Amino acid sequence: MTTQDLPRGMIRATGATGPHEGYMPGFGNDFETEALPGTLPQGQNSPQKCNYGLYAEQLSGTAFTAPRGQNERTWCYRIRPSVKHTGRFRKIDLPYWQSAPNVDPDVISLGQYRWDPVPLGDQALTWITGMRTMTTAGDVNTQTGMASHIYLVTASMQDEYFFSADSELLVVPQEGRLRFCTELGVIDLEPREIAIIPRGLVYRVELPDGPARGFVCENYGQKFDLPGRGPIGANCLANPRDFKCPVAAFEDRDAASRVVIKWCGQFHETFIDHSPLDVVAWHGNYCAYKYDLRTYSPVGAILFDHPDPSIFTVLTAPSGQEGTANIDFVLFRERWMVAEHSFRPPWYHKNIMSELMGNIHGIYDAKPKGFVPGGVSLHNMMLPHGPDRAAFEHGSTEPMQPVKQDNTMQFMFETRFPQHLTRFAATEAPLQDDYIDCWDSIEKKFDGTPGTK
Ligand SMILES: O=C(O)Cc1cc(O)ccc1O
Ligand SMILES: [Fe+2]
């Protein structure tokens, strides 16, 4: 992206060039960036008067006293303090964007479910009106759990801004590009990349070149972090330098604008007379970022057996109970399958965690048919699932040669909490009524005699 591509009137920091143009590399770094030279105060955060007549404001992403290493905050130097970016609030109705707890008495969440892609349609839908909640888990008021959504976006937000006080959003595009113009800079996103938009950050979502569809994990809990690598050591999986945080960019634009706020599961609007994207410079470690899933370096079985899918964790949001995540974001991407004398596809299992999967691209080895790009599946807490008949037959008869598993990219939002289907997921989204039949034809092979069948 070059400076010419920016929204009209937006001024962006220079400095990051080459492969990082417009971004700064690293995960959880303490960054500093300024769109006008000499904006950031040196040696202090809150001078009596800020340069350029700006206002200093802190955005706290963790409690003041969160331990070092988890503590996140950013200092913003802005044209107006945020308090000028809101007015009196009015509640608005967004019936398709639901929050936990959302247990519909008429909906059965106990089951294995799969959906075809939700069609984009020709209705004008923005990032706000196009969000379609599929499942909710935990409780937004106690800041535990998550929601999974499909977004259908056919229109850019114009003079309209949004923030969620409830959640950090993990965005997984499947079709079409998105542009996030945020208080802290601009993120351009395409399928096979992901973005994290932190709680409280104000932004506008634009479509650079046509409709877009994808998935969102709304994290009510502690922020996503990189997983510990344990004995894997200091490299592989998601490497910190591949995460990219935008440089500062701001607009000084007076225009009648609407700000929508998600707060405790409810939506509110307020009207102001200017753009709230007015942060000229910032420093800190609480920021939005993106990551290219094609840079994920998977580690797997190099001799035998099929390890737990946790080896493919890109990001994990802790729950407070060690090793039991509020959410794991897991990636199944292309890789070599080399395990000897092993059933290579995922095994049959029941899981205390609940697994929502989405297909970004290609074919998933446990479900060669029916789980298509844009599609979603849900295997809820303690519900058995595993390869369909075709995948089982293939996995138990394939020659034990090294095979490149190509043309594949799926993800899993795995949470310790049961996921409840929304009414939309149960009644409006294209649910595959025959999904569970994929296990119907699995036959009994046992006949009481020893030996493999
Ligand atoms: O259910 C699934 O398809 C996801 C999954 C993949 C895997 O390789 C092992 C376990 C698991 O839950
Ligand atoms: Fe599973």
TrEMBL record:
<dbReference type="Pfam" id="PF04209">
    <property type="entry name" value="HgmA_C"/>
</dbReference>
<feature type="domain" description="Homogentisate 1,2-dioxygenase N-terminal">
    <location>
        <begin position="23"/>
        <end position="293"/>
    </location>
</feature>
<dbReference type="InterPro" id="IPR046452">
    <property type="entry name" value="HgmA_N"/>
</dbReference>
<dbReference type="Pfam" id="PF20510">
    <property type="entry name" value="HgmA_N"/>
</dbReference>
<keyword id="KW-0223">Dioxygenase</keyword>
<dbReference type="InterPro" id="IPR005708">
    <property type="entry name" value="Homogentis_dOase"/>
</dbReference>
<protein>
    <recommendedName>
        <fullName>Homogentisate 1,2-dioxygenase</fullName>
        <ecNumber>1.13.11.5</ecNumber>
    </recommendedName>
</protein>
<keyword id="KW-0479">Metal-binding</keyword>
<dbReference type="InterPro" id="IPR011051">
    <property type="entry name" value="RmlC_Cupin_sf"/>
</dbReference>
<comment type="similarity">
    <text>Belongs to the homogentisate dioxygenase family.</text>
</comment>
<dbReference type="InterPro" id="IPR046451">
    <property type="entry name" value="HgmA_C"/>
</dbReference>
<dbReference type="InterPro" id="IPR014710">
    <property type="entry name" value="RmlC-like_jellyroll"/>
</dbReference>
<dbReference type="GO" id="GO:0004411">
    <property type="term" value="F:homogentisate 1,2-dioxygenase activity"/>
</dbReference>
<keyword id="KW-0560">Oxidoreductase</keyword>
<keyword id="KW-0408">Iron</keyword>
<feature type="domain" description="Homogentisate 1,2-dioxygenase C-terminal">
    <location>
        <begin position="295"/>
        <end position="446"/>
    </location>
</feature>
<feature type="region of interest" description="Disordered">
    <location>
        <begin position="1"/>
        <end position="22"/>
    </location>
</feature>
